[in-house]
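Saturday, quiet lab. Running sequence design on the structure tokens for the scaffold JK sent over.
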């Protein structure tokens, strides 16, 4: 498999299967969220979905619009239905042992032109939804003495990017939320970690790479000299959902080809 002219070794697929194989037998139900207003999500919820279900786990996806051929729950925008969604998932599949907080939207705009409504929408979607769902699943996880919460962040969290004030602020806050919840719930056997992808092979980066001059400039900022594939997000999320990461909590892992360290 190749991407942007760089070969991806076949061992990566085998490694994904090996990691998925160490999912604790008792952790049978996963809930993942997906809200993506601009149609350019990294697809991590899809990759994770297939990896989890391929290894015998039951998985549900919460989305504001129906997801064909997948078990899903409607979470209308502008209202908190987190507790209802968790109750319905647990009634249908059993206790939620793994939560993947993947909801996110972006906003590129001059900061002086960003309205209060736009700012609040980004923060509500990217941060508040994660807090609400974590709060909803935590009592059950605490009672059972185990749980995995994976918050999807972004490499934009620790760096400053012009015209992305709301998005950067929301993703930086996701990392802080991850640290706080990780510290608070570790004694209950719950691990909370953040997976922060960089540029992935989705619509917006592909458009930038279509022009050779833009491609050279774009990839010069990435030490790996390529963008990532959505399928590379899933295996790392599966590791964070597995027993292999039981001693890891409150951490943010950047999957960005080295871009944050070289920014």
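Result came back. Writing it out in full:
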């Amino acid at each position: 498999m190749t991407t942007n002219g760089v070969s991806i070794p076949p061992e990566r697929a085998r490694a994904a299967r090996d990691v998925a194989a160490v999912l604790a037998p008792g952790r049978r139900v996963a809930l993942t969220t997906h809200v993506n207003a601009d149609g350019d999500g990294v697809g991590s919820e899809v990759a994770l979905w297939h990896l989890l279900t391929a290894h015998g786990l039951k998985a549900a996806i919460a989305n504001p619009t129906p997801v064909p051929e997948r078990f899903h729950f409607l979470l209308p925008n502008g209202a908190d239905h987190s507790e209802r969604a968790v109750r319905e998932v647990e009634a249908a599949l059993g206790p939620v042992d793994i939560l993947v907080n993947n909801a996110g939207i972006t906003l590129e705009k001059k900061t002086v032109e960003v309205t209060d409504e736009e700012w609040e929408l980004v923060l509500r979607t990217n941060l508040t939804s994660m807090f609400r769902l974590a709060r909803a699943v935590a009592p059950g996880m605490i009672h059972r003495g185990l749980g995995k919460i994976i918050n999807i962040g972004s490499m934009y969290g620790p760096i400053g990017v012009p015209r992305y004030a709301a998005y950067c602020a929301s993703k930086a806050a996701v990392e802080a939320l991850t640290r706080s919840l990780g510290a608070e719930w570790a004694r209950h056997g719950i691990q909370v970690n953040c997976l922060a992808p960089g540029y992935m092979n989705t619509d917006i980066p592909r458009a930038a790479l279509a022009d050779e001059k833009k491609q050279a400039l774009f990839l010069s900022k990435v030490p790996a000299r390529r963008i990532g594939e959505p399928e590379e997000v899933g295996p790392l999320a599966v590791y964070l959902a597995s027993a292999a990461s039981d001693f890891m909590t409150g951490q943010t892992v950047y999957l960005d080809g080295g871009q944050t360290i070289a920014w």
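Notes for JK: Residues 146 and 189 are 4 Å apart (CA to CA). Confidence is low (pLDDT under 50) at residues 1-8, 37-42, 64-78. Ask whether to fix the surface positions before the next round.
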